[in-house]
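User: My advisor asked me to double-check a structure prediction for ABC transporter permease before group meeting. I don't want to rely on an old file, so could you generate it fresh from this sequence?
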Amino acid sequence: MLKYTLRRILGMIPMLLLTSVVVFSLAKLMPGDSLSGEIDPNNTDPQYIAEMREKLGYNDPEYVQYFRWVTDFMKGDFGTSTRYKIDVADLISERLSNTIFLGITALIITYILAFTFGMISGRKPYTIRDNLIAGINYIGLAIPSFVAGVITIYIFAFKLNWFPSNGSVGIGLIKGSFEYYMSRLHHVFLPAIVLGALATASYTQFLRNDIIENSRKDFVRTARAKGTHENKIYNVHILRNSMIPLVTFLGFDIAALIGGAVITETIFTYPGIGQLMIQSVGTRDYPVLLTLLMLFSFLTLLGNLIADILYGVVDPRIRVS
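Assistant: Sure, here is a fresh prediction for ABC transporter permease from the sequence you gave:
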């Protein structure tokens, strides 16, 4: 397993280099640049804009710009945000904690709901409860995240006034205090529900179908023949085998939840890297945009690796040498 992990990590290097070429090319294909919106004779001198483009290297050939960017990137220099005028690393680190907190909260909600609904549907398939859960799942699959976000804000924030509709923490609270952390939890709950509940549908169906399939296998018949209690059969024997497909998703969730937070954070005005990415696209903030895209690519590759490793942890029969 150690040799396999090292080989996979080394294999990520050429993949990231190829990704950097694609990411840089797509970013440069967008019309305009970070200075395009500032070309206004009433606000900014066109000569100043021309000088800034020369200073930032926007007039250099594309391949020169790429090699300069990728060389600095490998050194840990992600550049300076053209919008916020601060280091990209500092800007992303300020927002990353919010997105991680949102992603972990949404992941907990997803797995709690998925295991609860999946076990209920899998143990009693084709019953009223199973059909009711299936109906809820179909609704979850059909509703886009931006529609669910607007509906939850309207009901729970505006009508019921249970949760705030924007931000990540209340104003004026002392960082590190109990009130501060409770406020963060209060602000993150609504967007986390949207992210987590919508992801539950597919997880529930996968778990349900696997439980039904595994309940018909020989090892379950043997356990029943030995007089093993039905709860132990489902909670230990069947569930352990049915968890394997969900482990695959767990690795991808590291990147998917952070990437999926782009829309949710924008709707809830939640200050995370998802909202930052939308802003960087709109303002052509290349240093921020390129760094975030590379971060998402790295997390996707890392998720693949974690999923493969967890395979062997969940099922001892699966071992990679």
